[in-house]
Amino acid sequence: MALDDRKTQFTFVGTRPDRPDGLDKVTGRAKFGADVSAPGMLHGAILRSPHAHARIVKIDTSQAEAHKDVKAVVTRADFAEVPFKPGLEGEFWNVLENVMAGEKALYDGHAVAAVAATSALAARDALKLIEVEYEVLPHVTDVDKAMEQDAPVLREGAADYSVPEGMHPNVVRYHESGHGDVEAGFAEADLIIEDSFVTEATHQGYIEPHACLGMLGNDGKGELWCTTQGHWIAQKTCAALLGIETSQLRVTASEIGGGFGGKTTVFIEPVALALSRKANRPVKLVMTRSEVFRATGPTSSASMDIKIGMKKDGTISAAQGVFRLQGGAFPGAPGDMTAMCAFAPYNLTNVSQIGYDVMANRPKQAAYRAPGAPMGAFAVESVIDELCKKLGLDPIEVRLKNAAHEGTKASYGPTYERIGLVETLEAAKAHPHYSAPLKPGQGRGISCGFWFNHGGETSVSLALSEDGSAQLMVGTPDIGGSRASMALMAAEVLGIPYENIRVTVADTATLGYNDVSHGSRVTYASGLATIKAAKHAVEKLCERAAASWGIPADAVKWENGCAVPSGPNAGDFDPRPLADITAHMGQTGGPISGHFEATPEGAGVSFGTHIVDAEVDPETGKTAVTRYTVIQDAGKAIHPTYVEGQYQGGAAQGIGWALNEEYIYGEDGRLQNSIFLDYRIPVASDLPMIDTVIVEVPNPGHPFGVRGVGETGIVPPLAAIANAVSHAAGVRMKQLPMSPPRILAALKDNG
Q: Does the structure show a pLDDT above 60 at 2?
């Protein structure tokens, strides 16, 4: 998309006004997924498999159906006939199979039946009346074991064309990329380190569980209220699974109590709608925390092999990586993303990367902020750190020496445009944190990180009111302060105060299609669309002013919220403020609004550098992060406070991932820690103050220079913390999380 309207000087953008949703959230007025109700509403509950892998021989729902308070029971049979989309396949089929098990239950927690009753208690009681006969099958939950030739097969024929011959059927996708000659590069190296690394699956840990209210009549018309990062994809998916026309299902996104990628798909929404259609009444479904852990998407677990060669001066001569990720019982693990992101921060002559997508008896993985990238960075940056240590080189100087820059051919193929990695490294080198002395028992770690960022289908509408205020409708749920950012960008174009703009997240019947709030796309794509929509409205404002002055429209320009003659030849007229024009718009041509729809493709990649200090107690293995600094390129920080919050949030989640969080499966394949008491996310006392530095290297693909910031912040922490802990402990940590037992075991193995 050609951009001829780039702006570098701003009035509103870059300021820190109050957040528009703040009052509603602190007073309880904001409505989240479980806050809505409807007359005659029923309560739903889902029966889930107690087995990691089992054939469903028989389901008897007769006793549940006879319960006086039960109004509907559904199984997979209720999804079998899809009149508008016969023979679901691909991702739709995978989602349906995950939403309600077919022939087999594929993981502990897989949905097998659901009921709707007059109360939540009655619904839960009715689940006990459903009799399911299972034939328990062998299971596998470890990614490496799932690839072995004698591993249980989850589903024959799930692999796509990319998988080489001879691979186990659980390997469903294969990625290979790179350039140069890695063997020749290794021959040039003065030191080669080859090592293996493991990360366990972690959950996004959003505080609000999945919740929805579904209403679907026998006429095929429905309403759905849900907590989601993308209500258009929920509309499209639910309509496909239930065999109704997409336009007949209106979906409204509630406020969202955290998503981080985990609410980009559907889990319970089609079930609520199926129950509603059968009962002919609204049905509300709210997950328990245990259900969230057992049946919604965590990250993939990963097993990785890294080999890097380096010359004595710090030049990386060759790099090679193999990345194996399991995505649960369905295709979708981001092995390709891990492979492409792992070496992306570096300007490499010889690089090769391979990624595997592997199925295992676990819940279907979902995105978690830069899906796949944190694992790859952990492995690669750990090896680079070890190379620097053994060659006696400064870790930032080595990264600067090898840093990707404008014109670099990325490890995964394309050539970078203007990027800001070097600037983040220089800022890290100059930061007081990097030169601060360490106490005994402490270590310091450095890591770089990369994320692609994304554009996606986007639609925005802006309407002006007679009093000169504006109403902006966007289709991307606000998961990171986007309403404030949209209002600031609209204010910048229109020249009216931020407070005079109200931003609403529209439902699917009100606005054109919008892609999910993911991929760090919202501030970039919805922001670009907002700017274009505001400019569209400005064009009409100028036309109205021109008509009132009796001059051509191109003889009028917009400055500081006013229409003014474009030059001395256009005439001598007093500026006409926006409110003056809109006050008379009913008499001068009608309402004034602006619209924009597009799929922008100039999102611009993103880089960050993190500095971490950590200490280790050799007696107990307990670790503590004592200081943390995040440095990241935002392109242009529209609302700096929100940007800093994204940086700090990524670091906080990375600390949990690196030190405590993991899915623990027993030998029976069942999840052992499905509540927050046993799955430990960081609390305030676990975290240091997290300092932030916003670097601004404008993205040439956005009028205001914006780069998405929501995902890159979680890429460097695993490696930076692992490097710090490894230096503090005196032993290289290769498995995450670095829990006290693992650290003690590593210390013991190291003597």
A: no
